[in-house]
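Q: what sequence does this backbone want?
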């Protein structure tokens, strides 16, 4: 099947904020204990941080990591996680029914973040707590010294402020499952007052207000409107969360789910702009898609997990080749909306619904979904081109008309290179990709084609077979301007 893509230099969707390739470490399951932090592991450094995991995180190059939750944060006391480790209390985490020993706290996270080269996105507990604790946390983290809490941080061994710029105003506050769940009115007021208070401390802080937990919430999109009615002028981003699943083994629908992500984003943009118009505001609200991924493989097993232990094996989805194709489509959706989605966090980073998997006491390896994320993070930082794509399509009951090719082009003005991410959704036919760059001056040739392909949609990477699903170099050197991409594959095509 032919797929012709027309692109022109002047027509761009926007410049990608590198924070689109962020991720998320929640105090959940083995994300921390047995994941990023494992004191007795042979690969751990003097702080108990697993160097094998840090190497993979550095390779993924995630510019921002959200912490410490997620649902966890809504019953978290930040004061429990600071100071000498031996005097920190063990608490019950009500969100995940686990024991929380508080051994990997604020300072440990900050050290880890510096070592892997990422910026923190710290989330306030607006479930069981509120304005006072948020204000105090900001003082502890960011004030240089001379106040009670900043001096306490110094006493705890961090003379320099953590300088955390990006903060989340709670997590999924629209969800009845959330400890301290709120109505949109209650949350909108609280978010506004917390935002005002912490911006009195430092107006340059960037704040993310909670949008809906997913597109199916009965309060969506009224929630967004009400929250923004209260907080529009004092927050900088509105969050979106969305997870995708394929229990029915319906690949045509699963591969189309990025159309669901597209329409979720576009609806939220419309609500933001509607509130902007109502308020006669000059400010544009940007979006922070701070939880997205495939999540369903572990749901059944998690029901059998024993409660109240440290680091239970929760949400340990083992991702298939099929999931990697879907993650490739979801990344294209985020990039397509780079004009409004400035920050996104793949949920999550290690062990819990994550691209990186470990065995406690054993090795770490890359899951299938690691690969499309790795390449998007490496080659997706540029200007997204607004293309016209001519290709066949199929009808899907849930998502409507879906093109067989999910394509995304990124131009790098500094080098002139154009990188294309393509998922071929066709189950039997190859796509003959032709790129029409007549809207660019000069001639372009394809010089590299990397593909993720496997004959088994359900192939996985595991401890014994960590390289079962890995990218392949399809060709080297100049290989002409029409290229075939095989059915059901993810591809990176590089032109110069
Ligand atoms: O990422 C796992 C959980 O999914 C998060 O804790 C929560 O915010 C969402 O429901």
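A:
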């Amino acid at each position: 099947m032919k797929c012709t893509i027309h692109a022109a230099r002047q027509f761009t969707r926007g410049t990608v904020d590198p924070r689109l390739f962020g991720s998320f470490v929640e105090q959940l399951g083995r994300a921390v204990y047995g994941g990023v932090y494992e004191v007795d592991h042979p690969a751990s450094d003097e702080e108990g941080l697993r160097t094998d995991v840090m190497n993979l995180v550095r390779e993924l190059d995630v510019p921002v990591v959200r912490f410490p939750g997620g649902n966890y944060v809504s019953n978290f006391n930040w004061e429990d996680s600071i100071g000498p480790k031996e005097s920190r209390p063990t608490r019950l985490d009500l969100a995940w029914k686990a024991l929380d020993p508080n051994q990997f706290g604020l300072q440990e996270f900050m050290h880890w973040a510096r070592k892997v080269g990422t910026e923190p996105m710290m989330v306030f507990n607006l479930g069981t707590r509120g304005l006072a604790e948020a204000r105090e946390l900001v003082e502890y983290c960011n004030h240089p010294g001379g106040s009670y809490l900043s001096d306490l941080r110094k006493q705890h061994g961090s003379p320099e402020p953590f300088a955390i710029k990006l903060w989340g105003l709670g997590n999924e506050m629209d969800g009845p499952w959330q400890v301290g769940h709120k109505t949109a009115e209650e949350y909108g007021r609280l978010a506004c007052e917390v935002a005002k208070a912490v911006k009195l401390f430092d107006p340059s802080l960037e704040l993310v207000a909670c949008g809906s937990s997913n597109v199916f919430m009965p309060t969506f999109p009224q929630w967004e409107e009400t929250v923004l009615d209260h907080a529009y002028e004092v927050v900088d981003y509105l969050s979106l969360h969305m997870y995708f699943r394929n229990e029915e083994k319906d690949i045509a629908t699963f591969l189309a789910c990025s159309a669901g992500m597209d329409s979720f984003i576009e609806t939220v943009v419309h609500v933001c702009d509607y509130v902007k118009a109502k308020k006669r505001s000059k400010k544009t609200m940007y979006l922070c898609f701070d939880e997205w991924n495939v999540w369903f493989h572990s749901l059944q097993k998690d029901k059998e997990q024993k409660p109240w232990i440290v680091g239970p094996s929760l949400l340990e989805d083992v991702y298939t080749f099929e999931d990697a194709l879907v993650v490739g489509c979801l990344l294209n959706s985020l990039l397509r909306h780079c004009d409004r989605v400035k920050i996104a966090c793949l949920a999550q980073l290690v062990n819990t619904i994550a691209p990186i998997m470990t065995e406690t006491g054993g090795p770490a390896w890359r899951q299938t979904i690691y690969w499309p994320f790795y390449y998007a993070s490496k080659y997706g930082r540029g200007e997204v081109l607004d293309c016209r794509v001519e290709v066949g399509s199929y009808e899907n009951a849930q998502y409507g008309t879906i093109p067989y090719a999910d394509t995304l082009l990124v131009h790098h003005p500094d080098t002139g290179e154009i990188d294309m991410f393509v998922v071929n959704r066709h189950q039997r036919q190859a796509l003959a990709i032709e790129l029409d760059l007549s809207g660019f001056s000069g001639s372009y040739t394809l010089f590299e084609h990397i593909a993720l392909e496997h004959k088994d949609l359900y192939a996985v990477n595991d401890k014994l077979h960590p390289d079962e699903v890995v990218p392949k170099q399809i060709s080297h050197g100049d290989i002409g301007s029409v290229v075939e991409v095989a059915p059901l594959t993810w591809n990176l095509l590089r032109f110069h």
